[in-house]
Amino acid sequence: MGVMMQAFHWDCPRVDGCEFAWWPFVRDRVPSLAHVGFTALWLPPVHKTANIGGASMGYDPYDYYDLGEFDQKGSVKTWFGSRQELGDLIESAHGHGLSVVADMVINHNGGADGEEVNPITGLSRWTKFEPKSGKFTRNWECFHPCPYETWDDGTFGDMPDLSHRNPYVFGEILKVARWLVEEIGFDGFRYDFVKGYGTWIVTAIQEYRYLRNGQPFKPYGVGEDWDSARTIDNWITETNAWNDNPVDAFDFPLRNMLKALCDVYGFSLRNLATWETVVQKQPLGAVTFVENHDTRDGEKPIIRDKLLAYAYILTHEGYPCVFWKDYYNWQLGKEGTPHGIAALVQVHETHAGGGTEVLRADDDFYIMQRRGDGEKRGLLFVLNNRGDRWNGAWVPTQWRNIRFSPVAWWSGSDLSRPADQWTQADGWGQFWAPPRGYAVYAPES
């Protein structure tokens, strides 16, 4: 499926010194990302926002049709740049073979232009929206509570929640999606906070009959449902029922497992084969990740040895998503070496095909094989949780009399290249990983 880059982090324009110029900043890195092997960019919400209390990351949309061209809410540009600069970024990404995913925030709005009394509650709320684009104007009937729905699935802060069952709102959301795909050039959607609305609206957006350059086009889709594996699995199943353009979901339970792997002393690697995750239930519907913009506070970020987690998602099944801040700001990309995310992305794109089979899993040692599929011949992934020495074991592989070479490896204490290994006539072979580190071996053709 490729590898996605989440091309932003929280307050990235300010943190990276690119306020109102994030789009050119990302565009300049597109050629190197494509060269490494990334296949998609997930961008932050592109619409003009409320900007209450300062420039916003985009999760409080005000004018869905202002991508940085109307003078409203304190600026012409969005915090990320102008519409022209966004277009240049998308054009560059497409020119280098990368698709571009839009962050679709359709649960709530912010920055209304006026208050209205809701006759159902008798309370005054900020629900009157008259954006300068002149499109998708809104009043109290567009938000909960309203005549069209008696139940709001979930609220997000104090911002008014859109009522998707209002025919006008439903139609306008589809128009926004069509505009983003057909005119702006987005190739898919990341659906923000899907707990706040019915699965049917996502299905409707996915199934809309889009045309690009006169040809039918189906956008990619992935939902953010921060919950248990069972709940996410149910959301995927319900959203994709009677849907000919299925949607994926982020694997939050897997991320919890990866944090434990990296940060919990004495974590048993047996858990890697038994932890309940989305990828375990629906490997073709899981987007795996290590960090994102919402894991930034308190005890949420992974503190130790994060490359172990990236080695896991970039060798196992699922659609992996890499976090910009990890790759660039924390310098875990390590392009040009076998020791970082860049090498693992290349491993994913070259070798990580076919089903997964765990060959050994004990407290301190884990080996799995990807069986290969088509041009991807498969791999062996070895993880060592002992911090005092190299660790190895004999395991029964599917390959006979084959030489294996290490293609990616890392340890916080020993970056020595693992030795090549041979499997015997019966498929058994011995494979090693460095202290508190990993090694990925690929079969030679």
Name the beta content range.
15-25%
Mean pLDDT: 97
DSSP strand tally: 22
Rounded to an integer in angstroms, the radius of gyration calculated over CA atoms is: 23 Å
The chain-level structural class is alpha/beta
- Sequence of strands across the biggest β-sheet: 1-2-5-8-11-12-13-14
* Sheet with most strands: 8 strands, parallel, barrel
CA(first)-CA(last) distance: 23 Å
Stretches with pLDDT under 50, minimum 5 residues: none
Helix coverage percent: 10-25%
From the 3D structure, determine the CATH topology of the largest domain.
Answer: TIM Barrel
| Helix count, DSSP H or I runs of 4 or more residues | 12
The CATH architecture term of the largest domain is Alpha-Beta Barrel
Judging from the principal axes of the Cα atoms, what is the shape?
elongated
Which CATH class of the largest domain applies here?
Alpha Beta
How many domains? The number is: 2
Please identify the oligomeric state. single chain
The CATH superfamily of the largest domain appears as Glycosidases
Structure description:
This protein has 445 residues and is α/β, with parallel strands linked by helices. It contains twelve helices and 22 strands. It has an eight-stranded parallel barrel with strand order 1-2-5-8-11-12-13-14. It has a six-stranded antiparallel beta sheet with strand order 15-16-17-22-19-20. The protein has a two-stranded antiparallel ribbon with strand order 3-4. Helix 6 crosses helix 7 (229-240) and helix 8 packs across helix 10.
